[in-house]
Write a structure and sequence with these properties.
GO molecular function, one term: transcription cis-regulatory region binding
CATH topology of the largest domain: Tetracycline Repressor, domain 2
Strand content: under 5%
InterPro entries: Homeodomain-like_sf, HTH-type_TetR-like_transc_reg, HTH_TetR, Tet_transcr_reg_TetR-rel_C_sf
Keywords: DNA-binding, Transcription, Transcription regulation
CATH class of the largest domain: Mainly Alpha
Number of strands: 2
Protein name: TetR/AcrR family transcriptional regulator
Strand order of the largest sheet: 1-2
Order of helices and strands: HHHHHHHEHHE
Pfam families: TetR_N (PF00440)
CATH architecture of the largest domain: Orthogonal Bundle
Number of helices: 9
């Protein structure tokens, strides 16, 4: 008889699922999904191997549930950040920032591309979860086009190009350099969508970095003691 975690069976199920999600997240920091087994995940989670099958029939079912949970958490955070913002340009800036700092909310190894490690059927289902976030971007772009702040354009292409620009982006660990780069990327993406230079000005290097930049000066060149962090959605990388 498996040990009951929590006061009720429902609480036990929720806590067990969370333990399995946390275990999968930790294992994917160092291992490929293909190399994992249900036994290894159960051991990492501290639950019985047979108990795992009471929740998920196989590791791909566990992965889908985990991604659904993570996507739900992230989309809730994104919608909360967008709440009360009326300007579509400001909304796009928020979307870009949230996507760039995705690593703090998606509990998966940076650079992980799950869609290349699962069956075609599971890959298609992962794509459906990616569309949840894409639909938020779609609504923002439609609003911007309707208001005239962006020119009319094909939304699927625009969404693909925006997410491709943000996927796997390395950010400096130094907070000032990171903030400067985020502002640069926001301006780049907004201008690529057709926003005017007035609505999407380039950030002032002197304000952020304390100096002006020459045309060929790279303020993000890796320097000793300064690392980079990578943020990428594991189900957008192959979109």
């Amino acid at each position: 008889m498996p040990r009951i975690i929590g006061d009720t069976l429902e609480e036990h199920r929720k806590k067990t699922r969370q333990q399995l999600f946390d275990a999968l997240s930790r294992l994917l920091q160092t291992s490929t999904f293909e190399s994992l087994t249900m036994a290894k995940i159960a051991q990492e989670a501290g639950v019985g191997r047979t108990a795992v099958y009471n929740h998920f029939q196989d590791k791909e079912a566990l992965l889908l549930a985990f991604i659904a949970y993570e996507t739900g958490q992230y989309s809730e955070r994104l919608n909360h950040a967008l709440a009360g913002v009326s300007s579509p340009i400001k909304m796009l800036r928020i979307y870009i920032r949230e996507q760039l700092t995705l690593g703090s909310s998606y509990h998966l190894a940076p650079g992980l591309d799950l869609r290349r490690q699962v069956s075609n059927e599971t890959s298609s289902e992962l794509r459906l979860h990616a569309q949840i976030v894409e639909n938020i971007l779609r609504q923002i772009l439609r609003k911007a086009i309707n208001e005239g702040t962006l020119p009319p354009q094909n939304l699927p292409i625009a969404i693909s190009m925006v997410n491709a620009s943000l996927a796997g982006r390395s950010l400096p660990k130094d907070p000032i350099h990171r903030e400067y780069l985020i502002h640069c990327i926001q301006a780049y993406v907004l201008r690529s969508l057709g926003a005017s230079h007035t609505l999407a000005p380039l950030p002032n290097a002197k304000r952020f970095l304390g100096r002006r930049l020459d045309l060929d000066d790279n303020p993000f060149a890796s320097r000793e003691g300064e690392g980079m962090v990578i943020s990428a959605c594991p189900i957008h990388r192959a979109s």
